[in-house]
């Protein structure tokens, strides 16, 4: 015992030293930031932008140092050669550049997550440090190489509680706060292999509920930014999640790992300038997401390149020119051969037609016209209203919004563009002109934008100028970094990005989020089973290198148009070029609940992944039958109210969710309100509330201490995936309320 106390004391000293160093570095960044700010808004524009860039740099560094306060150091490796290495949230060096703390993402930290007694990888002992604030409150040791203990100078009497499980189980059993936390101290070996998998190519991570897919996806993003900083800092990393609520649920994880540069978005956010908040029937969303829509949009664009039935005669300066169908046909064919987007190819079409009309005009003059006069004639023709109308009718300049609005609001346009759809399907797509955009419209807008392009002459000139300026700025930033010695904080490219002397200085993430054509260095997709074919097409445009992490569970699909089979969805899109990893341990759901969920899912024919549960909790699955279905909502409200009181802990953690179909959910909310307990309403889920009422789709990806599931038969009737999702949200207990018989699998036959 005395020996453990002295071990604790020894570790406390080390941890104190690490926090001291952290405080020093914070102070240093604060001083540098203050000095830069003191310099005031004077000097040349170049000086000013350099100063702004440095101010942002120190602000970011400070934010990073502030964010790693909690559990700064959580591990220690004792190696065979006597070296002792501390593992933490970030790397810290002393003033002589000697390493004090190793970043968890560094190769030198890998053994902390991977070494086993069978493969100790040079590690004699792995120690978990348990901390509360800055205090070391506990230690846990895994001895990996008993024979080498003495060799490494470790006294066996100094070993603390010899299991590595404690830290993990403590993390898993903790009450939920409504926000996801990081798992950096307890990443398991199979998760670590996914996190550190190479950057290139598409990696699919399939795993049942609670296997840590989201956690792993986030830690992988942080790892990749660390291991490939120079590459990814410039191009950015995009993380796609299913809902805004989900993105809020995870939004503290990356900052707590010291990373703030990841762009997070739902598919509905991918088209800058469009807020897709409309809703529509599932069947319509499914149709809009299906691969056939790619050809519908393509055909809709081509239909706007049209040969007129009749010739149009136009008087220009006393002469007559004729817009002839055969000329239009030839000009269209020529412009199409260029294989460029509609609005860009239109420039060729118009130029060609004007040259033809000018030729007619010149013929009528009867003399040779010098080139400068011909240019004037062309300009006259171009600005003649009737000609402009005739050319527009043949090749209309279009916006993606205009094209899609026409399709949804003009049945003849949709019929012409979508002959492969039935009349009923086309009728389902119709909507009023002022209806808001829906999430399923977004990939279609993106598809249209890709086919339409912009009139890009000005854009291309701008891009050339930008590229030249960027190259000059990177070179300048390199010089600045050499002279200031700040090279370990930021790359020349990232610093140059912030030099931009016009407008506010934007981070890569901000610039990427505002630009539809931005291509990311890596894209992480969570709950990827929900993406439709059209959504995948839109997403893949943003990552031409196909460097992707795709995490999901094909048994949990609820989106219309999502997938139950990775190969069926991804093979056509990625030409079969993707690799798969599986996660097999459920860290969330108590074993008895997980087993019931699995039986129910299998009985419903879902493609369930094999998994084991990391822990069990007594009495985790309970049932309550009400005789009258009318009483369900009141009974659910009563149970939820009681359970919310039971799970609430002194620190304000502890969360309960009632999960029910939309109709039932509304009734439960009303019952709760009548009983004096108001719960948040609306589509955006309040993650801080101790008690929420959700539909299964809203609960996707989230977790709660206790879930009250209302009438599973009703949830199943809507979607088996939804029922599987709902059953696997709790970390402690699932309370099932039902009036109808329970679906097959709920009760253990054995
Ligand atoms: N190695 C670990 N250490 C501690 N906690 C972990 C670990 N792995 C996962 N967890 C915890 O398990 C819970 C489930 O993780 P996560 O939400 O990432 O699972 P998921 O596979 O995305 O689940 P779902 O498919 O149901 O959305 C989270 O609370 C997470 O913090």
From TrEMBL:
Binding site for ATP: 207-214
UniProt feature coiled coil, ranges: 8-39
Domain UvrD-like helicase ATP-binding intervals: 186-590
Stored Gene3D superfamilies: P-loop containing nucleotide triphosphate hydrolases
Pfam families for this protein: AAA_19 (PF13245)
Keywords, in A-Z order: ATP-binding, Coiled coil, Helicase, Hydrolase, Nucleotide-binding
InterPro entries: DNA_helicase_UvrD/REP, P-loop_NTPase, UvrD-like_ATP-bd
Protein name per its UniProtKB record: AAA family ATPase
Organism encoding this protein: Cellulomonas xiejunii
UniProt lineage: Bacteria, Bacillati, Actinomycetota, Actinomycetes, Micrococcales
